[in-house]
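I can't quite decide. Please look over this sequence plus structure tokens:

:::
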Amino acid sequence: MPTKVRTADTRERILTAACEAIAEIGFEKIRMRMVAERAGVSTALLHYHFDTREKLFTEAMAHSFANTAVDVERDAGTAPAAVILARILRSLLPTDAVLHQDWRLWQELWVRALRDESTRVFAVDLYAELHAWVSGAVRRGIESGEFTPTDVDELATLVLSLSDGYGIRLMLRDPMVTLDKALASIWRHIAGALGLPETVPAD
């Protein structure tokens, strides 16, 4: 196996292990040795790729987001714009086990961002990426004629804000909020702004 491939595979295993460990026990309790053991690598090799816990944490967050985005946009050039936007909405909520883990990571990020300036800046940058992701999907739909023109940035901000609010309630297992209700409620705002049916599109 070529060196570059081995290196990429090692980083992938480490980042996957870091996401799992942070989601399970929290960033403050995590130790580099724990991640190394879970990834099946030596502590020295882990430190070669990530010299601090903070760097490992930020890379794990970016890795988690990137993997979700790739899966959602796998056929963005051929699928209806409403289907892609509905996929994005589902990915912004804890709709399955993987996204439930992602939400735990986000909650760790929020807590750390309140106490650490570099993490706060990183969190704001990640939100900018999420905003660009949502707004990009909306703009593609407007340009293709599938969506009614609207204030794209305002809609993207609303979608992210509603997703955060509902997502927190879902993570708390609040009996007043179900996943279906959350999806339907957010989609109604999207549909109203873009001239779409109020039923969330099936994938």
